[in-house]
Amino acid sequence: MNRPRLETVLYVVALLLACGCVVGGVVIVQQARDDARTERESPQTVPPSVAEQERYGAALRAAESTALALVNIDYEDPEASFEAVRSTATGTFLEQYDASSESLVDLVTQFESVLTGTVVSSAVSSIDTDDATVLVATDGTVSNAQTGEGGQARNFRILVKLVREDDRWLTNDLEFVG
What we know:
This protein is an alpha+beta fold.
């Protein structure tokens, strides 16, 4: 009776393990190629993190635009200043702003007011696909018939609530918070 020798058995086992490794490697490489091909052919080529960053950036720019329009008013052309705000507004905020703009134009003109400001900081408080809330901090000065030429410092913290309409972020509500 011939018993297989230990070396022969070990050789066969090693050969089977090597074949298994080769087959497993081929399967893994093929799966990686299929995944890469599916990713390239996918209609969504922008990773979600990039799309989310773009949405945050667009909301910040929209809120900052509204804030800048609010803190830059010149009595020599108040209608242009008010139109800048209107162009960033919608809904409730636009209705309220339009209702008060005539009296605001009268006040700005009567007191020869010039308000200048810049955005110093802004941050998204909350955001989803259709709504965002942004806090905007501004620094500036106001000068008018009462303050003289030197003017007075005016710093505002504005909570801007935005809605997405026709692929644009527009201010739907606004609150001065400090």
